[in-house]
Fold peptidylprolyl isomerase.
Amino acid sequence: MKINKSSKLYRRAGITALVVAGMTLAAGAGAYAATKMTLIVDGKQSSVEPVSIKNVTYVPLRAAAEMLGVSVDYDAASNAVSIAGKIVQSPLGDGGKEAVASVNGVAITRNELYGAMLALGGAQTLDNLIQEELIGQEAKKQGIVISDQDVEAEIARIKKQFPSEADFQAALQQNSLTLEELKNQTPMQLRIRRILEPRVKVTDDEVKQYFEANQAAFDQPEQVRASHILVPTKAEADEIMKQLKAGADFAKLAKERSADTGSKNAGGDLGYFGKGVMVPEFEKAAFSLKVGELGGPVKSEYGYHIIKVTDHKAAKKATLEEKKADIREQLIRTKVSDLSAAWLAELKAKAKITNTLPEK
């Protein structure tokens, strides 16, 4: 939809012509047998049912005209029928003519911005708002309230799925999300889950079968937790190592000197990692060090690393007993997700929804 800059009002082009052309209107057909027909308006089937009598098509004028976006008025005094295109007020009113930007003195108005945003994603945005309102109403009916603490707990649960804060932040970036946007989306997801969870059942057999099919994924591999300081030259690395051996604080030096922007603000902490994650030179050194021991400088394609191992976890086989709660929760979430699309469709079908957003 394009809004004309010269006026806050706009018309659907050619509406009157569409009503007048393409259909024959007649009267006095009551004495003949009628055959019902289908009326197509702007490519869509109309609820109005024309009839054909002796090869002449009859359509209720007001119904057909109004579906095409025009007004039909009858003046009894003059015995006249008037057909006119409906004038639609800009949704922004007089404020739509205000400039939000200008290029070489030529204004770009709020109306133009609204039209462009509507064309880019207005329909989807409105559909999302309708869906969110439906879910909110259903949650209110069932007495479901999502608190800030619920949101924070869910964010914490999501973070636990990642090895480190850096990995979590990277996942947000990959999905074009900020933490604030994730928090804003979380309440709706929690409402859906609380509404649908009572419909979901997970048996002990399902939990056991899932564990047996995915046991390798639950087993804990050998892991170390390490911090590092990355610098471009060996001379700089040797100088830092000398300071550390003299008692300098590792985390402080990492924040000041490390070239690794992903870990320097955390004092060089890389979190826990298993074999096959880091570059070979770094991995070999890290897994050979004892907890608390310094290593390096180690050269890799990124520069020179000074490494400090802060913890070590031996490989450990998972048991069903220790994992069954997590598996049950995961299966419940999966089943809720599987149910949600059909449930939302059912909710929409039962609701009275008015959507007057103009079509493109």
User: Anything to note?
Assistant: The chain is about 45% helix and 20% strand. The longest strand covers residues 303-313. Residues 200-216+318-344 form one domain.
